[in-house]
């Protein structure tokens, strides 16, 4: 049950409909006197020395640093008491449609394009701000202004931010977590962890399932193949990509930039491959031509010299 009720006023916003809640907060639709609508994320605790309070403050700081940019739901307004107070901490963001709802029933190409857009956004946040999300899952992805967008930066890793991660506690979404985040989240590299989580998200959105299988996903596991849920002539390439992104060893996964490049290559190949084609003998040549990069064996280390490489197995002889 939510702690608040419809009609409650926070700042200039009046709560309307309860949307959802998690362990630390509630989300409500709200409206201002000028008619503007928004979604308000409201912290449950008022204890200013608590971890949830510190994470909420860090989330607001990250969103302010990012500012208005494509691929991220922006912060519109907020109130954050810095001392003990009867007031609640909250911030407002645009109302948006969950990405999973938006993509349901769409062709696989639309799913790959949306996840590719999120990959490019995450790569840009790393380059421009040194920010890692650390909570990538379908529930935190939305469609806003006609584009996919990230939300919920409550577990964000930000340069010079306060380290709020306990080494003895898993951090992040269940079933989307890589092994290193389960065993020692405080020391885990957040970059490969985001890649892992986004690959699991790709599988969930491609198969219309609620949860992904835990751990590394081998492309040879036919029961887990994207093609088992969403028939597509290039589903095998996505399975191989997901396998590489969910490797148990973080250093064996592609970077977020490489993942974004791989997804663009898949889209290019899909656009150039006739839908009724069954001859796959030219797929690898087309893949190289479309992507402008070379394929490498799945077990090999990815190019760390700044050259994007497809994280797919070598072509057959």
Briefly summarize what is shown.
The chain has 317 residues and is an alpha+beta fold.
Description:
- This protein is of the alpha+beta class and 317 residues long.
- α3 runs antiparallel to α8, α5 runs antiparallel to α7 and α8 crosses α9.
- It is globular, with a radius of gyration of 21 Å.
- The chain has nine helices and nine strands.
- β3 and β4 form a beta hairpin.
- The longest helix is centred in the middle third of the chain and has 22 residues.
- Strands 1-2-3-4-6-5 form a six-stranded antiparallel β-sheet. A three-stranded antiparallel β-sheet has the order 7-8-9.
- It has two domains: 85 residues, Phosphorylase Kinase, domain 1 (2-Layer Sandwich); 195 residues, Transferase(Phosphotransferase), domain 1 (Orthogonal Bundle), CATH 1.10.510.10.
Short key terms for the protein model shown above:
single chain, 317 residues, alpha+beta, Phosphorylase Kinase, domain 1, Transferase(Phosphotransferase), domain 1, six-stranded antiparallel β-sheet, three-stranded antiparallel β-sheet, 9 helices, 34% helix, disordered C terminus
